[in-house]
Amino acid sequence: MQKIIQGIGKVNVWLGYLVAPITLILTALVFYEVVLRYFLSTSSSWSAEVQNYLQIALVMLGGGYTLFHGGHVRVDVLHRGFGPRTKAIVDLVTAITVLVFAGPMVWHGAILTWEALESGQTSVSAAELILWPSMATVPLGVACLALQAVAGALSAFLRLGSGAGGEAGHAH
Fold first, then answer.
1. Residues whose CB falls within 8 Å of the CB of residue 110, separated by 6 or more in sequence, listed in order
2. What is the spatial distance between Cα 83 and Cα 113, in angstroms, rounded to a whole number?
């Protein structure tokens, strides 16, 4: 089971590294837009839309990476005071909760992405960007988040079984 946990972690870390450069692209686009607006008194018709789609990709595809590194919001004031067994139970319940919400998001996101792909759906802006690549980041990103939640659940289950408790293990 440890190999499965580590494998899921490696996939999410790899994906996190893959999408990290989007931050630099977003920064360059914002800088470009600022230069256009404040120095040239104009703006682009496409930059803001591309920024929105890149932000969606960064947030959605970085979710599993963030969960792997324990970066999602948690009530640490309470969690720190829990014993090892209670922490493992809370981690298990949290992982199950993520899966309950992730399932419909992956399912419906995939359907909407497929429909956009089949119909050739484009944005309504002047740029008329194809929408399915941006839409695909939702089910793909949520699926990776869900996989990392499964890894967290397996880790919590192992900690409960061993009596070790403590924090969720990571595949570093």
1. 139
2. 43
